[in-house]
Specification:
The complex is a heterodimer of chains A (385) and B (607). Chain A is α/β, with parallel strands linked by helices and 385 residues long. Chain A folds into 2 domains: 212 residues, Rossmann fold, CATH 3.40.50.2300; 140 residues, Response regulator (Rossmann fold, 3-Layer(aba) Sandwich), CATH 3.40.50.2300. In chain A, 43% of the residues lie in helices and 19% in strands. In chain A, the strands form 4 sheets. Chain A has a 7-stranded mixed β-sheet, sandwiched between helices. Chain A has a 5-stranded parallel β-sheet with strand order 2-1-3-4-5, with helices on both faces. In chain A, α3 packs parallel to α4 and α5 packs across α6. Chain A is globular. The N terminus of chain A is likely disordered. Helix content of chain B is 71%, strand content 2%. Chain B is globular and about 70 Å long. In chain B, a hairpin with a 2-residue loop joins β3 and β4. Chain B has 24 helices and 4 strands. Chain B is mainly α and 607 residues long. Classes of the chains: A alpha/beta (385), B mainly alpha (607). Chain B: InterPro entries: ABC_transp_permease, LivM-like. Chain B: This is ABC transporter permease. Chain B: GO terms for molecular function: branched-chain amino acid transmembrane transporter activity.
């Protein structure tokens, strides 16, 4: 292993010398070289929207980090390489980052196929792959250089089930889920927890990400006669389902996973998402100081735009990266070891994030029970809808 | 039982939506025998122009429709004038590739202008709902149905009773004869593209309003469903396209009713394959319609392949073989590994598409079959990786040939559409057959490449391994093409009736080509699986199939060296353009268009 490392460093530095000037796009025009993080994610292709949201979160976090004096006096910066969430490109990017000695750690990728295809390269190359949206249960099993702050679905789904079953009193559920590794894993944890809490799951329906028409699915749901709909969806498909559910005359309570938490959900869903319940990690009126700072900073930087879940994930990820680099410095191995050492890093999602060294994930995500009232997300007041 | 009424109504509603795209595709296909892959992009452009009109300019609905129709028609005219007309005397496949390039460019332009975030496109119609069955329909459903049916009727009348319509139909039947009779073929094409684009733009806007959502990913899906509906109805047949769309909607809806949501698209594509096999010209094709022209065959440009002297090939191969001994970064090696893997796929496709003339648009399915077979063999049965990869190749060869065999009787575009459908079916079976493929969770922890007990982990060793495999496959294929088999393949491609008259069994030769091609693609998929360590149903998607076809056409159909050169170019270009970040796919699309424009027979020419 060490043999490979030395070779990659030698080769990488040669490549860096050849291409050095060209990379300055992401670097700052400052005399002291910034500490550079590599980001592999989608900027074009079908998932491009998520890469754009990442950037917003990163940039906000970096502004704050720079304002607070950077990392021991040095600036922190990132180099974003577009992978289109395509494994063929993410593996090439992985080699690029591994052989570029300026990169101290990597963040991303977005989808599981793209991220996990690159994991062996990061593991063998000894560069931390910090996947902050990678909920696939096997992601961190790729090796001790894989760390993730993605909320474990084993944590999140019981919270959602508790909201739906214990708090809202739903007894017979229909679960609609994205038929991806995330949606499938989430569904399994949700169904298990909901049954434990005494509810019956009448029907589960998995749909593919490109799906736009849910009317026939909703007829199936109606025929199962549930008293609540559970959406394990992202905001765009979640909004579509809610709209069509109301159009075909389903009036049941809708309860959605935190991934729909986005102003876009309200915009796309319109009146149909009124009274939709959702569990989230933070909410607009949240009194926690880290959340207030995040929301205020985000609105100020992006012209009044409300941040969403993916903005929060990337904001947290950049802050976590800064905390890790503060301890670990710029040595790649020391950075890996630093992940086990960081304690209570201020986080929008977790409140204070500390890694579980065994699973290389963070446990104990915050939980808020929200409902859409008058076109806004609001803390649920306990009143039935 | 009342649910069946609801499923029927829902099927018709969504079929309605598909019809809007299918009609435009049918019109263009009817005249220029071209599957316009840019139709989905015009639909996308229409949706965003509609957004600007509604949200920024607050235009009333009739004006919005007019603005969108005019703007989209302009886009269509520009595409026709600058993208397609210069290609009318080149290979018949060049316009197809050009539409793919145009769709890249248009999609990227929209994405760069409006950001990839989805937007709400509010409907401008009053929100009243009518109770039908247990569900409701709104005024927008009626408007979409009205636009679909009216435009189909208008087009039908136009084609049958107006002078320009006659010209359009004459051009569709025989372009040269129409020209001799004094038909201004260019004007006809312009009219057709203008109308189809206007329709496409308006449909994008209406569908955006219908879902209150537009985003840049909607273009490919629209094209896919539109192509299926159009072919089911009878390619080039406008009223048939509407009926085909409604049928597609119904089949999907009943599929959901009986088997569940995750089987929905499976039924759409199965419908397509069944229709193609039973009635290759679609359900409503008229008997008088001219037989579908082969995409390649007589339409291959009479180009002389570029002769590359043997010593130059040896030098190039030797150069790539010793490349890792020089201080090149692992990133370069990894990029070349990707090129070699794509090269194996391109070898496979250039054989079936170029040499024997079966243009496949579902080739990624062969990768997926090889990858899953190899991954599962090595994981669950502990087969050594080297053998597992060969197993993947054999499985791809067998299964791929078996799946494609019902469509051996098809010709021209229909082969492409059948293979497109088969590709989607394979991906959906992988998604749904959980007991074997682990469904959406995918297969993780696939062991790394190894050979005779030695792990191939460093990029250098993987590089050499994949290069060696590709070179061996290329040599085998070159040997094959030089033998009597290769000549028989080309005879079938150039004139299958003459070939049959000489006693060649078409099915047997087509099978042979798919067996060899399937093996190469399966091996490529198998290596990729062990390289990535994780695969799921999305790893090998439609974009891969389209990329492979682009490589093959770029390199020169049937050209072994061309396939490899094309792979290096198309893997390399997006990497070279990396500095351009968000703009790189746009640049890639433009480069592709320029190549098609100035070298339609491919870089190295057709063999």
């Amino acid at each position: 292993m060490s043999n490979i490392d030395r070779r990659s460093l030698v080769k990488g530095s040669l490549a860096a010398m050849m291409a050095g000037a060209a990379f300055s796009r992401a670097a700052f025009a400052q005399s002291s070289e910034p500490i550079l993080l590599g980001v592999s994610g989608p900027l074009t292709g079908p998932n491009a929207q998520y890469g754009t949201q990442w950037k917003q979160g990163f940039d906000l976090a970096l502004d704050e980090i720079q304002a607070a004096g950077g990392i021991n006096g040095r600036k922190l910066a990132y180099q974003f390489e577009d992978s289109q969430s395509d494994p063929r490109q993410s593996v090439a990017i992985a080699q690029k980052f591994v052989s570029d000695p300026r990169i101290v750690m990597e963040l991303g990728d977005f989808s599981s196929p793209a991220s996990m295809a690159a994991s062996p390269i990061y593991q063998r190359g000894g560069l931390v792959q910090f996947g902050f949206t990678n909920s696939h249960p096997d992601f961190t099993k790729g090796g001790d250089f894989m760390w993730s702050t993605s909320v474990s679905q084993a944590d999140e789904q019981p919270l959602l089930a508790s909201y739906a079953v214990r708090r809202l009193g739903l007894k017979k559920l229909a679960v609609l889920h994205l038929n991806t590794d995330w949606g499938r894993t989430s569904r399994d944890y949700f169904v298990k927890a909901a049954k434990e809490y005494g509810a019956e799951v009448a029907v589960t329906e998995g749909y593919i990400a490109e799906e736009r028409d849910f009317r026939s699915t909703l007829v199936r749901v109606r025929d199962a006669n549930p008293d609540g709909l559970i959406l394990i969806s992202y905001y765009s498909d979640g909004a579509l389902i809610a709209r069509q559910a109301r159009q075909v005359g389903l009036k049941q309570t809708i309860c959605a996973a935190s991934s729909v938490y986005s102003p876009k959900f309200l915009e796309l869903g319109g009146e149909a998402v009124e009274d939709v319940h959702l569990g989230t990690r933070y909410f607009p009126q949240d009194p926690r100081p880290e959340v207030k700072k995040f929301i205020a900073g985000f609105k100020a930087k992006y012209g009044g735009q409300e941040p969403d879940a993916f903005n929060a994930y990337s904001y947290d990820a950049m802050n976590m990266a800064a905390a890790v680099v503060k301890i670990g410095g710029t040595d790649r191995r020391a950075i890996r070891d630093a992940f086990a050492k960081v304690k209570d890093v201020s986080s929008v999602i977790f409140g204070a994030a500390t890694f579980d060294v065994e699973s290389r994930r963070v446990k104990g995500a915050m939980n808020a029970e929200l409902v859409v009232r008058k076109g806004q997300f609001a803390l649920w007041d306990g009143k039935p809808t | 039982m009342s649910s069946w009424l609801d499923y029927t109504i829902n099927g018709l509603i969504v079929g309605n939506v598909y019809a809007l795209v299918a009609v435009g595709l049918a019109l263009i296909f009817g005249v220029s025998r071209l599957i316009n892959f840019a139709q989905g992009s015009i639909y996308l452009v229409g949706a965003y122009i509609g957004w600007v009109a509604v949200v920024q300019l607050h235009t009333p609905l009739p004006l919005t429709i007019l603005v969108v129709a005019v703007a989209a028609a302009l886009v269509g005219l520009i595409i026709e004038r600058f993208g397609l007309r210069p290609l009318q005397n080149s290979v018949r496949i060049a316009p197809l590739l050009a539409t793919i390039g145009i769709s890249f460019v248009l999609d990227q332009l929209v994405m760069l202008t409006f950001s990839p975030n989805p937007r709400a496109l509010p409907s401008q119609l009053p929100d009243v709902r009518f109770q039908v069955g247990n569900g409701t329909i709104g005024p927008l459903d009626l408007l979409i149905a009205g636009v679909g049916i009216t435009s189909a009727l208008l087009l039908f009348v136009f084609l049958r009773y107006s002078k320009l319509g006659w010209a359009v139909r004459a051009t569709a039947q025989d372009r040269d004869a129409a020209m001799q009779m004094g038909v201004d073929v260019n004007r006809v094409n312009q009219a057709v593209f203008g109308i189809a684009a206007a329709l496409g733009g308006v449909s994008g806007m209406l569908v955006g309003m219908y879902y209150n959502q537009i985003d840049t990913a909607m273009s490919l899906q629209a094209t896919l469903k539109g192509v299926v509906a159009e072919v089911v109805g009878g390619a080039g047949n406008v009223p048939g396209a509407v009926i085909g769309s409604l049928l597609l909607g119904l089949v999907e809806s009943y599929g959901v009713a009986v088997f569940g949501t995750s089987y929905r698209n499976l039924f759409a594509f199965l419908l397509l394959v069944v229709v193609l096999v039973l009635r290759p010209n679609g359900l409503f094709a008229s008997a008088r319609q001219a037989p579908p022209e082969p995409l390649t065959g007589t339409f291959i440009a009479p180009s002389r392949p570029v002769r590359i002297p043997r010593w130059a090939l040896l030098v190039a191969a030797g150069g790539f073989a010793i490349l890792p001994l020089f201080p090149v970064s692992f990133y370069v090696l990894q990029t070349l590994i990707n090129a070699w893997l794509l090269g194996m796929l391109a070898l496979s496709l250039t054989l079936v598409a170029g040499t024997i003339g079966q243009v496949s648009l579902g080739h990624a399915a062969l990768l997926a079959i090889g990858a899953y077979t190899s991954a599962l063999l090595s994981l669950t049965l502990s087969v050594p990786v080297g053998l597992a990869i060969i197993g993947g190749g054999l499985m791809s060869a067998a299964l791929g040939t078996l799946l494609i065999s019902p469509s051996f009787r098809l010709r021209g575009h229909y082969v492409s559409i059948a293979t497109l459908a088969i590709g989607e079916i394979v991906s959906l079976v992988i998604l749904n057959w959980e007991s074997v493929t682990r469904g959406p969770i995918g297969i993780s922890g696939i062991p790394p490449l190894s050979l005779f007990g030695y792990d191939l982990i460093s990029p250098t060793s993987i590089y050499w391994f994949s290069l060696a495999v590709m070179v061996v496959l290329a040599l085998l294929q070159a040997r094959l093409l030089g033998s009597h088999l290769g000549r028989s393949f080309r005879a079938i491609r150039d004139d299958d009736i003459a070939a049959r008259a000489y006693g060649l069994s078409l099915n047997r030769y087509k099978s042979l080509a798919f067996i060899f091609g399937g093996f190469a693609a399966g091996v490529s998929g198998g290596i990729a699986a062990h390289l990535y360590s994780y695969i799921n149903h999305e790893t090998f998607n439609t974009q891969q199939s389209i990329l492979a076809l682009t490589v093959v056409i770029l390199g020169g159909l049937g050209n072994v060296v061309g396939a490899i050169v094309g792979s290096v170019a198309l893997v390399g270009l997006p990497e070279v353009f990396r500095l351009a970040a968000e703009y790189r796919i746009l640049i890639y699309g433009i480069v592709l268009l320029l190549l098609v424009r100035f070298r339609p027979q491919g870089l190295l020419g057709t063999i």
